[in-house]
Amino acid sequence: MTCLAHIAVVDDDREIRDLLAGFLAGNGYCATTAADARAMDKVLAENRIHLVVLDIMMPGEDGLSVCRRLRAASGPPVILLSARGEEIDRIVGLEMGAEDYLAKPFNPRELLARIKAVLRWRQADDEAAIVPSSPREAACEPAVFLFSGWRFEPASRTLIAPDGVRLSLTKGETDLLAVFVSRPQRVLSREQLVDLTRANRNQPFDRAIDLQIHRLRRKISGGAGSSSLIRTIPGGGYMFTPAVSRESE
């Protein structure tokens, strides 16, 4: 029997693992469990895993370290589970590369909804990476944007720092930066950014744009004056402050 997606459930609590695996199976998903990072690596090596539900507090390698490692290796998306639900813990988890974060205890149906949202989001990213929005948009899009010593190449999702270091961007970060560099020195509200990036309204967090900006700011925090490249405007939104020039192929 086919399944909607194959989910890896990684938690040192056997009761939680079995409960989630059974619940996911009852909703049309394949689920394979692992008690720790080492067991998870074996599961990933032997199966095509579409998403990992990952507990943070585990013996051995913890979930944050695992999440960072999976992100660096372009592994499957991760939803983190934690008994700690403070906002700072959520932000740290997202910085490590998680797509979503859920505090324990939680309703399994909420986890299911977030799994569906992340899988839809990832599918949309993958499709958009292959197919341009339209032939006309692809033909008209500038090859390169230049600002404050940085070089931004949207087509390859590449950002080159003033010192020559190349940074890879996610599709969400690329879309967001493309909006900023095409509208520099203008205040853009959160709602405008959502519309302009065609952000999926099924994304896991209501403040997904804020989190994308948080990640993007961290990537451009090394250049001279770069800490103020994206300025928060109280009550207004965000502004991309540097002047921007375009370099076409």
Q: How much is the average pLDDT?
A: 81
The proportion of residues in beta strands is 15-25%
CATH level 1 class label of the largest domain: Alpha Beta
Number of strands: 13
Based on CA inertia axes, which overall geometry fits? elongated
Percent range of helical residues? 40-55%
Count of spatially separate domains: 2
Largest sheet: 5 strands, parallel
Termini distance?
50 Å
Helices and strands, in order, run as EHEHEHEHEHHEEEEHEHHEEE
* Number of discrete helical segments: 9
Regions with pLDDT < 50 over 5+ consecutive residues? 127-141, 199-206
CATH topology of the largest domain: Rossmann fold
Key terms:
single chain; 249 residues; alpha/beta; Rossmann fold; Arc Repressor Mutant, subunit A; 2 domains; 5-stranded parallel beta sheet; 5-stranded antiparallel beta sheet; 9 helices; elongated
Would you write up a description of this structure?
It is a single chain. The chain has 249 residues and is α/β, with parallel strands linked by helices. It has 2 domains: 6-130, 3-Layer(aba) Sandwich (Rossmann fold), CATH 3.40.50; 135-247, Winged helix-like DNA-binding domain superfamily/Winged helix DNA-binding domain (Arc Repressor Mutant, subunit A). 41% of the residues lie in helices and 20% in strands. Strands 2-1-3-4-5 form a 5-stranded parallel β-sheet, with helices on both faces. It has a 5-stranded antiparallel β-sheet with strand order 9-8-7-6-13, with no helix packed on it. A 3-stranded antiparallel β-sheet has the order 10-12-11. A hairpin with a 2-residue loop joins strand 6 and strand 7. Helix 7 crosses helix 9 (208-219). It is elongated. It starts with 5 loop residues before the first strand and ends with a strand. Residues 127-141 and 199-206 have low confidence and may be disordered.
